Amino acid sequence: MKRVKVSNNVIRRLPRYLRKLDELTENGIxxxxxxxxxxxxxxxxxxxxxxxxxxxxxxxxxxxxxxxxLRSEIAxxxxxxxxxxxxxxxxxxxxxxxxxxxxxxEWGFRLIAAFDVRPEIIGTMFHDVPILSMDELAQYLSxxxxxxxxxxxxxxxxxxxxxxxxxxxxxxxxxFTNVELTAPDSKILVENxxxxxxxxxxxxxxxxxxDERAARAARAxxxxx
Amino acid sequence: MKRVKVSNNVIRRLPRYLRKLDELTENGIxxxxxxxxxxxxxxxxxxxxxxxxxxxxxxxxxxxxxxxxLRSEIAxxxxxxxxxxxxxxxxxxxxxxxxxxxxxxEWGFRLIAAFDVRPEIIGTMFHDVPILSMDELAQYLSxxxxxxxxxxxxxxxxxxxxxxxxxxxxxxxxxFTNVELTAPDSKILVENxxxxxxxxxxxxxxxxxxDERAARAARAxxxxx
Lengths: 225, 225
Known about the structure:
Helices cover about 45% and strands about 15% of the residues of chain A. Chain A has helices at about 10-25, 35-40, 45-55, 65-75, 95-100, 135-145, 160-165, 195-220; strands spanning about 30, 65, 85-90, 110-115, 125, 130-135, 150, 170-175, 190. The longest helix of chain A has 28 residues, at about 195-220.
């Protein structure tokens, strides 16, 4: 595939487009205009056209976008058709929650193994995923193509485990530890999952509503209602 | 506080600003220019100035932003100083992971209770949070101010539990269930946590790197190296 440099903001909107297109498909909608798509996602039609134009021509003037075709293009741009392998490091609560509830294959990933330090779970299977010992990790990495490591270890293990992963050729980390992992000169790709971002957005909207109510109440009081 | 209508995109950048300012504070940095802040966040200086101007004047020409002052302003805009109460519905893996690892109070929230249907955990405490029965929920909501419900129930319970919450006055839901909860005319505030978004961004970057390597290899082959 020919690659153009795409801005970070566009890349981060692509998964949202994908989810929206999946939703449209589920509702039996097979064609969508940039206007409709924009209004459903809080973006302007021109922003949407501009985003998609980074990757070539998808839409047709006066017709809009073909939902399955656009969906499949975006999935391909996101690498969902590349058969990436993931391993999980740390099978605690968050690791178990992801293994149980997160459908890796829906997003093009195979979760091929998990690693932990606790003897009581090493050697067992958890939802079809073998749990191996951390002592086996280096050997495992030398024998398997691992594209992404899901980091769900306790905070204090985050940095040493990352060093071990990168020393053994892992280049991408999906980081749930809330520990900052990227060194400025590092070649490692890190995506941090920040739960707080969505909670704080919600907090903003709750505050806004509180203020609106207080303002209404104040107005009502002033007008003697 | 006087409120102006702020675009959704600005609201969603505020938590990122907050995290970055916390990081600067940790590194002993107390002043930052819009240029520096922008380059660290992948935004233009003018975008940053524009974002902050929505809420009034923070920066000073030629001086930049005072990090603790800006941090405290953003925290206040996000409602982090309002003492919001949260309850959790569903104490499965993801609920336990959040209770254990997510520092609600760091973001201005108090997790005051959790609810579940399993008799074996009802009546116990988990990390200082009492686990109550779902049968007690309506009564509890009539006696406590609950600003946000953290929804960590199994998929099939998402819609009925949401209906019960809203019927009892809960207006904001932090939704981990991957089930779409918002009706277009509903007054309920919902923030969905989509793990897939960050995994797919990572997937994009891994794909990009793969393609760059393949392109380099092809060039090397053509030039007979």
